[in-house]
């Protein structure tokens, strides 16, 4: 490896999640801001978050209910 061309690697970089969780990781950046982490991701927490954009969830549930009525 050539000397003085590689960025400094810090093993105690502070990573801050949008949910408020703060933890240390290794990185060449002094600080990292992330949107999702293991403390707020549905896969790890087991909680499903439904983000409703323009009523899509309600429209889906309405169509699903109408289909169920037709099948009966």
Automatic annotation (TrEMBL):
Gene Ontology MF term list: metal ion binding; rRNA binding; structural constituent of ribosome
Presence of the UniProt keyword Metal-binding in the record: yes
Domain of life: Bacteria
A Gene Ontology term for the protein's cellular component: ribosome
Cofactor annotation: Zn(2+)
Keyword RNA-binding among UniProt keywords: yes
Annotated cofactor note: Binds 1 zinc ion per subunit.
Residues that, per the record, bind Zn(2+): 17, 19, 37, 40
GO biological process: translation
Keyword terms, alphabetized: Metal-binding, Ribonucleoprotein, Ribosomal protein, RNA-binding, rRNA-binding, Zinc
Complexes and interactors: Part of the 50S ribosomal subunit.
Record family assignment: Belongs to the bacterial ribosomal protein bL31 family. Type A subfamily.
Known function: Binds the 23S rRNA.
Protein name according to UniProt: Large ribosomal subunit protein bL31
């Amino acid at each position: 490896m050539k000397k003085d061309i590689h960025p400094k690697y810090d093993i105690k970089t502070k990573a801050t999640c949008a949910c408020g969780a703060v933890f240390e990781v290794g990185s060449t950046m002094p600080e990292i801001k992330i949107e999702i982490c293991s403390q707020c991701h549905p896969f790890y927490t087991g909680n499903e978050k439904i983000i409703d954009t323009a009523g899509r969830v309600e429209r889906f549930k309405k169509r699903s209910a109408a289909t169920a009525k037709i099948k009966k």
